[in-house]
Every structure is written in C-alpha cells, then in structure tokens.
Design a protein that fits this description.
Number of helices: 11
Order of helices and strands: HHHHHHHHHHH
Radius of gyration: 24 Å
Oligomer: single chain
CATH superfamily of the largest domain: Tetracycline Repressor, domain 2
Distance between the termini: 71 Å
Structural class: mainly alpha
Helix content: 55-70%
CATH architecture of the largest domain: Orthogonal Bundle
Number of domains: 2
Number of strands: 0
Amino acid sequence: MPSSKPPSSSQRPAAPEAPELIWLRPERTGRGPKPAHSRTSIAAAAVEIADAEGLDAASMRRVAAALGAGTMSLYNYVPKKEHLLDLMLDAAVAEYDYAALAPTGDCRADLARLGHQQLGLCRRHPWLPALVISRPGIGPNALRYTDHFLAVTAPTGLDGGARMEAMALFNGFICQYAQYEQSAAAGAKWQAELVGYLTRAAMSGEYPNLAQAFATSGPPGDPDTAFDRALDRVITAILTPPTPR
C-alpha cells in the first residue's frame, strides 16, 4: 500500500530551471487573463528611449514608466535586463526591407544593398552597433537576417561555416563604421585635432609610409562614398576564395 506521507524535500524532484535564453521562454503560459503588455510593446518602448537618450537610459524603471507599469511587474515579462537588450536588438533588425533585398544571384550587388540597409539601421538606432558587436542576435528577426545572408552568399560556393564567418566580418565592419561616424559627428574638435596630429606625425619624417599615404590620399571625401569604397573591399574579401593551406 502506498505511503500517505508526503516525500521529504530531499526526495522531491528538483524543479526544472527556467531557460536562460528569453527565446526559450513562452511569452504566455495560456493560463490566466491576457497580459497587459507584450514583448513587442516592451521592446518598442525601450527602443524609443534608447534612440532618444542612449542605451543606458533604457533601464527597466524607465521602460516600465513609459508603459505605465510598475518596475517589478515588468520583470514578469522580461526577467532581466539582458533579456530586454535581446528584445531591443531583435526589434531593430525587424526593420530590414527584404522585398528590396531579394537575392538576384549577383552577390556583390546584393551584399552592397544589404550593407546600405544595415548602415541606415545603425544610423537610425545609434545604440545598435555596440549591441550587435557585444551580443549574439538569435531572436526570430535576427535569424531571418542570418538566413537571408546565407541565401545571398549561396552562389559563392562557400560552405555554411565560411558564410557564417563572412557574415560576422560583414556585420562587424558596418557596425564599426557606424560607430566611427558617431564619434566623428559627436567630436568635431577631436576630429580636427586628430587630423592635425596625424599630419604633423606624417611630416616629422619618422613615419615614411604614413607620409606617403597622406600624400596620395588627398582630402577627406564624401562619407557615403568612403563607405562604398570600404564596403566594396569587404565584399571583395568575402567573395575571394581563401588560400589553401
């Protein structure tokens, strides 16, 4: 006959740990009333704050206030700040216009269009480049971007691993270029001092190769033209088969 005595705490099975990734957590359990907020609305509020004031301003307290919710109640939807960052990143990359990015079979042209859209995305959301570099984008919209990149680069004949590496190179370049633009825009005085400093260094005679580069590069050109040149070099690197080892 089974014992009616409840099992001791040491005998009870341990409760399963909640998944670390927010994408593995169901947004709704199906029980109880409909939630007052959604991940989409929470991410939209956070993105709006970060666009206006920077990523640090998008705290759980500020986002909760923007939604008219209590700070602690927000944790029922987003258990920790890292999850909020993941939602923000995925909300931003949902803005790609894939209708305008349909693969044509011309990898160079397709990657150039993708690169320009990505730079535009980084310009609209100045906080995004640092987040892309520091956190892996694995939400539904980020995975759609990954799938698109793999489709665009399929004609290269590179295997899947090589194309994933190419995507990291591509994304890293564009994010760093966007960060450089932000630095230049925010620090005109710093930029002018930098040019002056490098010019003096080149004229000192201690750096002959730097002097030669300065002599042949000419004055700074249009930023978009400079981006096109640099992007073309990155695309060339992606499309060039690696040297066999």
